[in-house]
């Protein structure tokens, strides 16, 4: 064997030998029967033609799909509005009870604490939260070392509850309470 670079014969130990590779056992390729392929293709096309309508037949399919899905979507949106409004009202009642309990701490005796909490709820319900004071019930327990204020709101005539005719509604009466411990000297 002649070296390409020098033009001399290469020593016998440097002669290039082809690598011996392991032979893998292979299967002969499967023969494709064109008749079978044609039959399979024919059946697939037949299924495709019956399962999928042609482009002309698709007119109005969006309207049909919306007629099926639209009412569910509208009910979901109404449910989100109803429950979102109810949670907003419940948060307002809880905040009202908490602030009334804090306001009642300033009283000297239980009677004055009760009067302070009820006056706070009546004023703030109308001014801050827009609640009707006639629909609110306030219960103040000012005995012992803690003041407990319970506020209940009747939402039966609230506009948000008008959606309750179509959707399972939350309770019409929202009751929340707050407790504040009396500090000592």
Assign the structural class, choosing from mainly alpha, mainly beta, alpha/beta, alpha+beta, or little secondary structure.
alpha+beta
Strand content: 5-15%
Question: Care to count the β-strands?
Answer: 3
Secondary structure: helix percent: 40-55%
Radius of gyration: 42 Å
H-E string: HHHEEE
- Shape designation: elongated
Largest sheet: 3 strands, antiparallel
Strand order of the largest sheet: 1-2-3
- Calculate the terminal CA-CA distance, rounded to whole Å: 110 Å
The overall pLDDT, averaged over residues, is 82
- SS element count, helices: 3
Report low-confidence residues grouped into runs of 5 or more. none
Domain TadE-like: 60-102
Biased composition (Basic residues): 10-28
Pfam families: TadE (PF07811)
Keywords: Membrane, Transmembrane, Transmembrane helix
Q: Could you please describe the fold and organization of this structure?
A:
- The protein has 185 residues and is α+β, with helices and mostly antiparallel strands.
- The protein has a domain at 63-181.
- It is elongated.
- Strands 1-2-3 form a three-stranded antiparallel beta sheet, with helices on one face.
- The protein is built from three helices and three strands; from the N terminus they run H-H-H-E-E-E.
């Amino acid at each position: 064997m002649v070296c390409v670079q020098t033009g001399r014969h290469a020593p016998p130990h440097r002669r290039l030998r082809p690598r011996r590779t392991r032979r893998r056992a292979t299967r002969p390729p499967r023969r494709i029967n064109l008749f079978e392929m044609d039959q399979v293709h024919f059946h697939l096309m037949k299924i495709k033609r019956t399962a999928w309508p042609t482009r002309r037949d698709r007119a109005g399919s969006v309207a049909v799909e919306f007629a099926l899905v639209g009412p569910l979507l509208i009910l979901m949106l109404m449910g989100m509005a109803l429950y979102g409004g109810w949670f907003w009202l419940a948060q307002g009642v809880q905040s009202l009870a908490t602030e009334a309990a804090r306001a009642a701490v300033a009283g000297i005796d239980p009677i004055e604490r009760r009067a302070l909490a009820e006056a706070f709820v009546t004023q703030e319900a109308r001014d801050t939260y827009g609640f009707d004071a006639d629909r609110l019930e306030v219960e103040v327990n000012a005995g012992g070392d803690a003041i407990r204020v319970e506020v209940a709101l009747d939402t039966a005539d609230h506009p948000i509850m008008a959606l309750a005719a179509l959707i399972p509604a939350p309770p019409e009466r929202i009751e929340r309470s707050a407790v504040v411990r009396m500090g000592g000297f």
